[in-house]
Amino acid sequence: MVVKLREFNNIMGQIEGAYHSAIVSAGLSDSEFDIFYTINSEGDGCNQSLIYKLSGQSKSTINSAIKKMEQKGLLILKQGDGRNTKVFLTETGKELSKNTAEKIIQIENEAFSSWSEEEQIVFLDLNRRFLERFIEKSSGLR
Q: Would you say 54 and 48 are in contact if contact means Cβ atoms under 8 Å apart?
């Protein structure tokens, strides 16, 4: 069992490394990619808090990246309902996202689509169950 889990961890590390290499090759930081990725999947004008939640990165990391991207003219922030802040891509940001993050997303989709529907369902189910179990068991560490 330990050997299989070690292999799983090695694969996860290699996947993270492959993403990082692709992201850097595209000229983005990991945080910029996460922001573009979330906006691409959730739609322009998504809540800033959603980016934290879906990326798994800290609020401070995402906030810093958003400020830098705003200074570069890639996005703008608008007040949403209550305390929500909405994130919108500028035309420059949309173009950069199209030429970088969206290409990586396309590669991701091609890799996932190479599996049968049954394989996709099993993959998602096992990963979801692993995450739920890990969160359940690790919550006692706090």
A: no
**Rounded distance between C-alpha atoms, residue 48 and residue 66, angstroms:** 9
Q: Is the per-residue pLDDT at 142 higher than 70? A: no
Look up the CATH number of the domain holding residue 134: 1.10.10.10
Q: How far apart are CA 120 and CA 39, in angstroms?
A: 24
Tokens for 13? Answer: 């590390």
Do 103 and 26 form a contact (C-beta atoms < 8 A)?
yes
Number of domains in the chain: 1
Which structural domain range is residue 125 located in?
2-141
CB 23 within 8 A of CB 104: yes
Which tens digits make up the pLDDT trace of 92-130? Answer: 999 999 999 999 999 999 999 999 999 999 999 999 999
- Which of 93, 97, 106, 75 minimizes the C-alpha distance to 26? 97
Strands (E), 1-142: 46-47, 75-79, 85-89
